[in-house]
Amino acid sequence: MHSLRWIWGNMRPYRKRLALGLLLVLAVAGMNLINPYVAGKIVDRVIYGHQNGLLWQLLVIMIGSTLIRTGVRYGYQMLFENLSQNVIFSMREKLYDHLNQLEPGFYDRTKTGDIMARMTSDLEAVRHFTAWTIYMVVENLSILLFALCFMFYIHPPLAMAMLAVTPIIGFFAYRLTKDVRPTFSAIRNQFARLNSVVQENISGNRVVKAFAKEEYEIEKFSAENKAFKEKNLMSSRVWGKYLPILDSLAGVLTVIMTFAGGIMVIRGSLSIGELVTFNSLIWALNNPMRLAGWLINDIQRFIASAEKVEELLVTEPQIKSIIDEREVQTSTTILEFDHVDFSYEDGPVLCDITFEAHAGQTIGIIGPTGAGKSTLVNLLGRFYEVDDGEIRVDGINIKDWNIHQLREKMAMVMQDIFLFSDTIEGNIAYGNPDAPMEAVYAAAKQAEASRFIESLPDGYDTVVGERGVGLSGGQKQRIALARALLRDPSLLILDDTTSSVDMETEFKIQETLRSILKDKTCFIIAHRISSVKDADLILVMHEGCIIERGKHADLMERKGYYWHVYNNQLGNFERTPLGEEVI
Amino acid sequence: MARNTFDVDEELETPFNLKHLKRLTVYVRPYKKKMMLTVLIMLIASGANLIGPFIIKHAIDQEIPDKSISGLMLLSGIFLAALVLSGICMKWRIRMMAEIGQSIIQNIRKDLFSHLQSLSFSFYDSRPHGKILVRVVNYVNSLSDLLSNGLIQLITDLFSLAVIFGFMLAIDVKLTLLTMGGFPVLATVIFFIKTAQRKAWQTLSNKQSNMNAYIHESISGMKVTQAFTREQENKRIFHRVSTGYKQSWLKAMYVQFLLWPSIENISVLTVSVIYVFGIAWIGHGVTVGALIAFIGYIWMFWTPLANIGNFYNAIINAMAYLERIFEMMDEQPAVKDNPDGKVLKTIKGKVEFESVDFGYGEKEQVLKNIQLKAEPGETIALVGATGSGKTTIVSLISRFYDCTQGKIKIDGTDIQGVTLPSLRKQMGVMLQDPFIFSGTIMENIRYGRLDATDEEVIEAARAVQAHEFISGLQHGYYTEVNERGTRLSTGQRQLISFARALLADPKILILDEATSSIDTETELALQKGLERLLAGRTSFVIAHRLSTIQNADRILYIDDGRIVEEGTHEELIEKKGWYWKLCNAQRLPSEAG
């Protein structure tokens, strides 16, 4: 019932059209009775009664009514198609919009294949319900009611007798409803799993090939594929159990009519003509009851999917933005971390992080893998919420910022570079779709990417594959850097951006950055000392804490972790005979 | 090959033909017997259903006028028995049809998926992944109804059509011929609808594929979208894509739903004609009884015909999907496994490149005349600017791509002459972009060698210095990670994927920036362990950090697809060439003074 109420909520804007559609359905249901009636008349009056003059009239009625009926039926079918497309269309937009609002934490938990299943096959099930099931139910229900009324009008006792089976039909229909629902849920869940396996296989195709694990993948897939079949068969066993019962019970109506009606005729309480009329109407009871089982299936399938769609829609974004953009006085203390603690579900990641960054400063962060460096950046863009403490940008807690306004101030190059299957130009201009070509060229030049891009046969119009396949790691990083630079942000965040870029190029990039970052704040996370050495503040992170801070010279003096890393990276090299020659 | 994006419709090269249907029969054939059985069941069922009208007629004509209650009871008894019989038949029909339909679907999907496994990188690289996904999962699903319900329904409908036609002929040949007059009209209408419908569904399947691709990519790249606050723009694009889908859907429906009304109106027209002529011919060879019976059959005649029309509809729609499915099945892998290839025996690890050229397309030449020889156990480091072709060189060893000129030999055997699995199983490749499957960390490492014990997995993790951080996690090796390994830092992912490569215990190890995101401390520790691990393995190491490469047996400097320098660290430093310059750049400018 809940899902029905939910879909009604979605259909409300179209209720006038829905009402019109259902009215037309009723009309057509009534008109269905015309042709059998006319056919009967032709036999009675024309063939037996020899009133040949009536033939043309009756035929005109028959043809005319068929034309009108089929026309109206086509009309409301299109009306329902239209209506359902509108409902689904806005639902899809809502879902997409919602997906855009959900935080990375949601995507950490949810498999892409699962979301895809909701966006495709579940929506399809909902569509089928709104486009087809609704009017089929109404159509059959009204045919049934028309026929019943007519029967009661002719002969109430016989009509009552025929209704005697309805409780039994009702009982089995109820049982079917109850038993089939879990099987549809199982099918759709299995579908999501199947989707995920295929999806991961496609995304991870390089690893699969590299390890020649095709056989294993096929095995893994086959298990899910088989389970999908099993789940479908399980469901079909449930309807295989109930549908024949419902179907036979519908047939029992005819038996009752023949038997009870026959006795009534013999006893004289019913005329044979009335029995014949009953007989000519029996299909109007039979058919809807036969269909009842299938429609119940449709409805249950709808409910199984609707729940999933709705579940996604009501998933509350954990990170909520205040709606209004606010006036912000740019402060010189552009960024402060104030005793920030953060943990994922499986343990603490950052503890008591405190530092501030001023306009024009460069902050370098260095530290071992998994020390929490990238997490720091994630918190800064408010992709995750801090547990304790505050992060302030321009003196205002980032929770009090409009999230878009906040993110527009910054540009990030993430460690895990994601490029879209679009042209290189489209990728660089991702954050500023309206940027002129010159700006794109300039950003590419600043990121030292223009040379290799121009050497490609299609230059900036080269289409890169999803995730940027076809480009080397360093090329991807530079495109991502260009994408960030084009934003002209006041806060630039580079998370391990040049790890795959060769030293020479990295050096050039740093030169450029220095010149364009004059009044901007820049975060550089890196492993190479050379990347962070010139920072105004270097933070050394270890297991979620800042263990050392200061400028290069200070840290060298401390002879702590930083000094250690420095020696490891460069000290070694200095001992080579080359030492003195490099000036 | 030009890459496809979400907003580009995929051109279909093969025109519509019956070939696809014929091909489909391959999947149907194994279930021929079951299908025959189902048809038989359905015939019994329809026989049982036909008893109904007959019984009623008998009751009204005979038993009731005779006031025979016992006769009435007998008739009802027979009727009930017939209902039970038809109920049982229906139960079996439902079961069988589900069984057949689902099995066919399972087989098609399995074939499609297996074929997918044989396709090379270039296939995956050239189109959005969402488009591949939708074919394997959604398109195949949409065939299920057609193949089970549709096909069996078609057979029974054809059968009843033939029976009814026989009855009609038996009653009156002239009237039957007259009835046939409706056929050409119907055929013409169907032809026009079909043509329009087919086009509409092709467009529809394209738009659907585009939309799914866009959704898929949006989900994968969501963090970038949010970081660059591009939500509004993406919404606009999605609106466009989604509108395209909606419109093409409606267009397809406008056409498709025309079929029913057409059939119904033509049938009523035909019936009218029969009435007119039939009544006129009464007494001229047509009896009243015959005419009534004939008209009774004519109504019955159109129901299966309409069903067949529906089936035809369904086929045309399914064709739009079927073509895509078969098109993908026909996709030839760019790197073909050599069917007559020998199984590469356990190798020692000698790798030779003999004047190898390589280009991704016609225009793009990436590698030029690469000559290279690595003895078993040697460590070869590749350095050079990004995009110079280092990754490409190592990709060729695993035959991810085929070289356009020259030969690559392992232990003296041309790798094109051996089977792919036997080649790749002996390599451990750590790719630049570490991919983590959803599952536990244990499973992810074990991916390298599926029969490895837990101890061996942990051993490998220890060797790459990953043990410490893994055991620091709440659930240790049983921590669930997902697809892109979101929870893990890139460095941690690299370590896991490194452990995976090591576990495979390969004779040839390829490390493509295996440690780019790993801190120096860990890397140093890693290298100590590595020296032991690399002993006896030929390894190719791509890295930018000098500390990673200077201990290599040989360093190759790659520039613009050529090897421009080759030698040990010391030799190359002596030479004061490219490598020497690179080493200088590595040093800090302020340090230089």
TrEMBL record, chain A:
Organism expressing this protein natively: Fictibacillus fluitans
Compartments it resides in: Cell membrane
Task: List keywords of the entry alphabetically.
Answer: ATP-binding, Membrane, Nucleotide-binding, Transmembrane, Transmembrane helix
Q: Where is the ABC transmembrane type-1 domain?
A: 19-301
Q: How does it sit in the membrane?
A: Multi-pass membrane protein
Q: Which SUPFAM superfamilies match?
A: ABC transporter transmembrane region (SSF90123), P-loop containing nucleoside triphosphate hydrolases (SSF52540)
TM regions (residue ranges) = 56-76, 129-153, 159-177, 242-266
Give every ABC transporter domain span.
335-568
**A GO term for molecular function:** ATP binding
The record's section on InterPro entries has:
AAA+_ATPase, ABC1_TM_dom, ABC1_TM_sf, ABC_transporter-like_ATP-bd, ABC_transporter-like_CS, P-loop_NTPase, Type_1_exporter
Q: What is this protein called?
A: ABC transporter ATP-binding protein
- Superkingdom of the organism of origin: Bacteria
From TrEMBL, chain B:
Q: What is this protein called?
A: ABC transporter ATP-binding protein
Keyword Cell division present in the record's keywords: the answer is no
Keyword Nucleotide-binding listed: yes
Where does the ABC transmembrane type-1 domain lie? 37-317
Quote the InterPro entries the UniProt record gives: AAA+_ATPase (IPR003593), ABC1_TM_dom (IPR011527), ABC1_TM_sf (IPR036640), ABC_transporter-like_ATP-bd (IPR003439), P-loop_NTPase (IPR027417), Type_1_exporter (IPR039421)
Places the protein is found: Cell membrane
Check the record and name the CDD domains matching this protein: ABC_6TM_YknV_like
